[in-house]
Amino acid sequence: MTWHVLGAGSLGSVWAARLHRAGVPVKLILRDPQRLASYRQVGAITLVEHDHATRYAIPADSVDSDTPIQRLLLACKAYDAANAIKHVAHRLQPGAEVILLQNGLGSQDEVAALLPQCRCVFASSTEGAFREVGWRVVFAGQGHTWLGDPADETPPGWLADLQQSGIAHTWSTDIVSRLWRKLALNCAINPLTVLHGCRNGELETHRGEVDGLCAELIELLTACGQPSAAADLREDVWRVIQATATNYSSMYQDVAAKRRTEISYLLGYACNAGSKAGLTLPRLQAIHHRLQAHLGSCGLPQH
Ligand SMILES: NC(=O)C1=CN([C@@H]2O[C@H](COP(=O)(O)OP(=O)(O)OC[C@H]3O[C@@H](n4cnc5c(N)ncnc54)[C@H](OP(=O)(O)O)[C@@H]3O)[C@@H](O)[C@H]2O)C=CC1
Ligand SMILES: CC(C)(CO)C(=O)C(=O)O
């Protein structure tokens, strides 16, 4: 069965290239005929791993094609996910499986609401990839991907394709909790690195702010029925800060490159969930507002 990959950016390309080279049928779906023409001119995705570049001539079509889709990897940013899926929804067969690679929370439910006839599998990944130029992508960090379906704990048969392709993964029966935990880590670290203009490790000099956010995130996770995502959060945040001390967070990198951030699916989602639960979370609200103002001053969307 063919894997269709909608969103041939950083992570989508890394997935597509590994599946393709393992002999698993893959097709890229590009956003419009112009992007398809650009891809066809080059004819391949170039994947750079350990400074070694390899071309993978993966077949592609655009969203305008009408071939049916039974398995789809949605690899757009969280803010593009629902809009992107609308363009291919009519091609998805009853019972089709859609794997959602988005970080944060909120986009998964937006997409699932549009696809009542499909099985939506949520993913949370610690892999790292970035687009160098054009159709050339650097696979910067080996990581792990957790996959799960909140509506059905049965592992899908296609996990064997991931195994065959060397995509490190685990089927998770608590994927929503994992997504919450990653969201909390991102909320405690990423906005502060943007506002202080620093690497993750330099947050050591802003201990009070990090700890204050952790305390409110623990309150939020607990109120939202996510006690295991709340357990030892502060310790985990400091462990991640130390382990990634010399790195710039993904949000820092987005702002530095003048790319839109996923703020609405991270801090925005956390603040909304807090309001819905009737919580007062002054530190999270304040950092959300400071970050929005900062994004505005950089000419970037505040949502
Ligand atoms: N990159 C990473 O290291 C990691 C990313 N993630 C998460 O994975 C998700 C994807 O991130 P990433 O791969 O970095 O994102 P990129 O910006 O690199 O890629 C997104 C891709 O989506 C495509 N796209 C957007 N809208 C549409 C549309 N309507 N139709 C078709 N294609 C569309 C873009 O197309 P075009 O090329 O035409 O602009 C682009 O190729 C994010 O939620 C991110 O947080 C999680 C862990 C690590
Ligand atoms: C390294 C870490 C955990 C920091 O929040 C991250 O995931 C990111 O930069 O987005």
TrEMBL record:
Listed name of the protein: 2-dehydropantoate 2-reductase
Species whose genome carries this gene: Phytopseudomonas seleniipraecipitans
Domain Ketopantoate reductase N-terminal: 3-150
InterPro entries found in the cross-reference section: 6-PGluconate_DH-like_C_sf, 6PGD_dom2, ApbA, Ketopantoate_reductase, KPA_reductase, KPR_N, NAD(P)-bd_dom_sf
EC number, UniProt record: 1.1.1.169
Listed pathway(s): Cofactor biosynthesis; (R)-pantothenate biosynthesis; (R)-pantoate from 3-methyl-2-oxobutanoate: step 2/2
Catalytic activity: (R)-pantoate + NADP(+) = 2-dehydropantoate + NADPH + H(+)
Role according to the record: Catalyzes the NADPH-dependent reduction of ketopantoate into pantoic acid.
Keyword Oxidoreductase among UniProt keywords: yes
Sequence ranges assigned to domain Ketopantoate reductase C-terminal in this UniProt record: 174-293
